[in-house]
From TrEMBL:
Belongs to the aspartokinase family. Residues 1-286 form the Aspartate/glutamate/uridylate kinase domain. It holds the Pfam family ACT_9. The keyword Ion transport does not apply. It comes from the Eukaryota. GO terms for molecular function: kinase activity. The gene is HOM3. Its EC number is 2.7.2.4. Transmembrane segments: none annotated. This is Aspartokinase. It catalyses: L-aspartate + ATP = 4-phospho-L-aspartate + ADP. Keywords: Amino-acid biosynthesis, ATP-binding, Kinase, Nucleotide-binding, Transferase. Pathway: Amino-acid biosynthesis; L-methionine biosynthesis via de novo pathway; L-homoserine from L-aspartate: step 1/3; Amino-acid biosynthesis; L-threonine biosynthesis; L-threonine from L-aspartate: step 1/5; Amino-acid biosynthesis; L-lysine biosynthesis via DAP pathway; (S)-tetrahydrodipicolinate from L-aspartate: step 1/4. Residues 412-460 form the Aspartokinase ACT domain.
Amino acid sequence: MKFGGSSVANAERIEHVAKLIADRMDEGIVPTIVLSAMGKTTNEIEAAGRQALAEGRVRIDHLRALHLETLDALALPASCGYEVRALLRELESLLDGVSMVRELTPRTKDLLVSYGERMSSRILAAQLVEAHGIKAVPCESWKLGLRTTGAFGEATVDEGCYPDMAKSLRSMVRDRDEVPVVTGYIGTDAEGRVTTLGRGGSDLTATVLGACFRHEPERDFYAEVQVWKDVDGMMSADPRVIPEAVPVPYVTYEEAAELAYFGAQVLHPISMLPASKACVPVRVKNSYNPAHEGTLIGDEATIAAARRKAGAEAPLLTALTSKRSVTLVDVSSTRMLGQAGFLKRIFDVFEADGVSVDVVATSEVSVSLTLERKGGDLSRDGRAQLEEIAYVDVKRDRAIVSFIADVTRSTELLAKVFMVLFSNGIAVEMLSQGASKVNISLVLLDADADRALKLIHDCFFMDKCNIDKAAAEQVKAR
């Protein structure tokens, strides 16, 4: 059971989460808890680090007040208060060091932000013990054996540590009847240095722990990862753009990963990988509305079985999402007709510039692709290299609208989508239906994205297709 920062934002929310865990245990669930830092703690620690670096001042007053007031409000024992205060002193000392040397390395930044989860895990564990008599134990993830590789700030989990983690969990949960309250988002590398898994990495910690159950020798149980958020599961669209968005009851691992990558912010983009490899189902639940079933994520067989049990049919369109402020690059050259290496030369340029490509559509002599604005842009030298072999047209302020759908029914889906867009004067500049069996992406003007999302969502989910009949007749005639 993983809980995000908004679920444990203050004393009231921590009390609510503790009660929720206790209720699930009364139902026979044996939980391992993964926890984020309280509220916006990670953001505040990062801001304190920047201030210490830029101004030489250390300020964690609000952060200290939040944690100490939570301790008082929950009337937690002195032992918990001592540990939290000790962590606050360590955090302040580390920030003092940053302010003195005026240096904030990625390694130091990872160590700084680890204090949020380390404090919240102690507070929730103490609340479970004091209020519910649960044998909860706060546990840094590395004490379970979670090891990472790669760069600070964006570390990856070393899958070789799974058996060790499974053994540690078995010892705590089965042998000692303990409920581990594990720090999300953080781990340590082979040298014991604290690392982070990137923002949203607590989801990844949860699915990694879930994947460890495949190493459990006694598989006499059903294992599930529950990711508790502040929404009723994954939604048919971003509710901030489409207020009428509805919860999606079932999605496959691949669909969930595509939704996350193309803009849905409910789950971390790579968090599905460990669960998918281990075939451990993931359920997205709402800590503010625990009675709601949420969204079940699993392999195709699991989802098909769940739909049959519920008497539900697979929808034509599962959900839609968007990426905004992208750049569309068209590269075309008849000079390269029939010549090997055209695509390689193009992508070598983007690789040299360190620019990530999202969506691609190709023919023998032309390539259209999109670049995230935050991921960089073509350098002047890179564009010059492309222009040596091709005509290059760069169009900014575009958006990707992605459909998570049954691609085997793409003709039916796109017929409806293009009818709606054509009837409402929205032009599509690029379409990509590639290797993914669940994703179709369109590129259009960023200014048209919100309207396109609403029109398509209304048509598929609200049964209100805004199609101009005269325009539809014109399309049919063509």
